[in-house]
Amino acid sequence: MEMSFRWFGKDDPIPLEYIRQIPNMKGIVTAIYDIPVGEAWPLEKILELKEMIEKHNLKLSVIESVPVHEDIKLGLPTRDKYIENYKTTLRNLGKAGIPVVCYNFMPVFDWTRSSLDYRLEDGSTALIYEEDVVAKMDPLKGELSLPGWDSSYKKEELHELFEQYKDVDEEKLWENLEYFIKKIMPVAEESDVKMAIHPDDPPWGIFGLPRIITNKESLERVISIYDSPYNGLCMCSGSLGADPNNNFPEMLRYFGKKGRVNFVHARNIKHIGPRSFQESAHVSSYGSIDMYEVIRALKDFNYTGPIRPDHGRMIWGETGKPGYGLYDRALGAMYLTGLWEAEEKNRNR
Ligand SMILES: [Mn+2]
To answer: Nearest to residue 165, comparing CAs of 44, 267, 157?
Structure first.
């Protein structure tokens, strides 16, 4: 596995110098944030980003994400224009030698939480999702203050989007995903850029919008749409693991042995009720996911791709982007590295 760290570009309060100082840190996971969704990414901008990272002796391991325009998810006639732009972006990323692109297919909202600074017993703060709190939220009413959702939509636009999604049920969303995958994967192959779809977070429908990438069956369906290692998965322990019916290490091993795991997000969460969870420290005993089993699964298929500690708590008085502080994610990277070393040495004995 190749340890990596998400970095939000020049505006990230955590400098690349600091990330480089985390032992075993090899790669950066980032994106270009100032290009509107749907537009093609110019090669020069990609190369500029890559050079900045390489100057710090790190590798640009993954682009997370190249966002998918809403018209593609909705299956509107305008989608073809945006798919062409997506292909151009993939070709340019390929020219720059970027090996992996992460994306998701969640309608309107990316990850969703009910609070971003829930205080845990030890005084640290973490992201939390409580179904009854989310059930009372209405993104169409009042102020748009959905935690963590940096809205680029005006209120009227959001209303219109929700209107449009009324015609899109889960099966329709699958059709639209299928259309997208079949169009872009040949270009991903030619460009030698491996795609990794991120599961929905949380892995169930919210606000009446459909969500489809939620469990083993749906991941199987994704990879069957286009039979190629380039049509792969981002296995996110926190997202999939939020549903107690998902046995994450088993799923990881299963898709890893099929050669379809292109990226791994390692984060622990603790189930605190039906459809409710809090993000916890990475250590197995702090959450509901057995991280040792996660590492064992990776070893079982000799995973050499990128992995990153996903979200972390805010500890030691750090302030910044919720889930993306330096300290707890660095601890997570060290913990995962320790588990990996122990497992590797034990197997070579
Ligand atoms: Mn994730």
So the answer is: 157
